[in-house]
Sequence to fold (493 residues):
Amino acid sequence: MSAPNIETIVSLSKRRGFVFPASDIYGGLGSSWDYGPLGVELANNIKKSWWNWVVYERDDIEGLDSSIIQNRLVWKYSGHEETFSDPMVDCRACKSRFREDKLLEEFGSNKAGDGDHAHIGEAHKFGEHLPGVNRLQEQKIPCPNCGEIKWTEPRPFNLMFRTTVGAVSDDEDPSALAYLRPETAQGIFTNFANVLNTSRRKLPFGIAQIGKAFRNEVTPGNFIFRTREFEQMEIEYFVRPEDAPRVHQEWIDGFEKWIESLGISADNLKFYEQTREELAHYSERTVDILYRFFPEREDQEKQWDELMGIANRTDFDLRVHSKKPENAEGKRINPDSTDDLSYFDEATKQRFYPYIIEPSIGVNRTLLAVMMDAYTEKTNEKGEVRVILKLKPELAPIKVAVLPLAKNKPEIVELARKIKHDLQPSMRTVYDDTGGIGKLYARQDEIGTPFCVTVDHESLEDNAVTVRDRDTWGQDRISIDKLKGNLIGRLNT
Fold:
């Protein structure tokens, strides 16, 4: 089974230390969350799995960590400054503010995935607005807060967070205006030549990056599913134009396997092919991998939402950041750039702008999907329902918990602490004596710890401990001198 709804994971996360509301002692801040002791470990393990797969296990990808604050011109020529917008509407009655496309998806006659409103927000981001059209009013969709049907017309709302660089305001000096990056991709594009020249790469090759991005969302929500501050795991993979369709499909197939390797069931995944009307202006083809984030919804189509997107961005990005390309009128597209980001193929003696395949997945959404899929309930011999978080061992925040059966017996405590100390360099291990053994087992099951090692009175005599399996609740007696090897073998199975 998986979690029945996101609220179940919210409760578990706060109770056990995965995710906390940010600034909680001051009433919080809308859609802001802090990763707790277990959450930061789970997130780091997800990022490590992704980085190992795309960088270490391949021979064609380099890593990068670009700056969060870039030159304003990056966002001018990428198109973000002018058109990176969502369609915003206001309720005239209660003054609440919403995204039009999300209200249409949730309450309108069109369903997510039917080719009309599923990705209308993406279209709005690139200037394809719908002036004079008030679909909320036409479909008589009431305000979720007050129930009135009194909507303003949709208008574009730019999602970038503004800031200033230096000791002056942008009113005093317009050049001081800057933005927190709304995506990690542009830092990769502007570093294309740097990576190419220093790594001596040849096509095809990619650049991978994990980093924070910021979007001033109109209506964030659903826990960590949609937040204003989030972390992306993103690849920009550069190929010859003629190879782009094949490589694009290879990445789609590859990411399906990687997501399933995290323990996520294929039954909770499906693919959505964006229609021509839904594609961003730069995209030749985009495929979204959806996850069943909302299983509680009666309408099955509304149970699914985007986990990640994999786009064929064509050669748009390298062209717009290059100094040479011209428009139809013979004028340079980018007179501010000082470099040309074209690629010279030594074999064919041709110069061209590579096509870009972009797989992009968020850490927050991946973590949420992993926790929802791992959530399991099991009834013990007393008829009590216990929660088990069946995380893959490589993702589990804690691999082993060492539990003394009698914390008031110094010899047992000393041996338990020694075992913890010996295991720690090889696997994340904790020592816990804060309750009875039943409660300790229950806690470790709930946070996803694969194995518990119990040190008891017999351990002092036979130099052995009891190893309990999280998923089966089965117990084995293992000699202490063979314990580390036994656990390493189990964790790697």
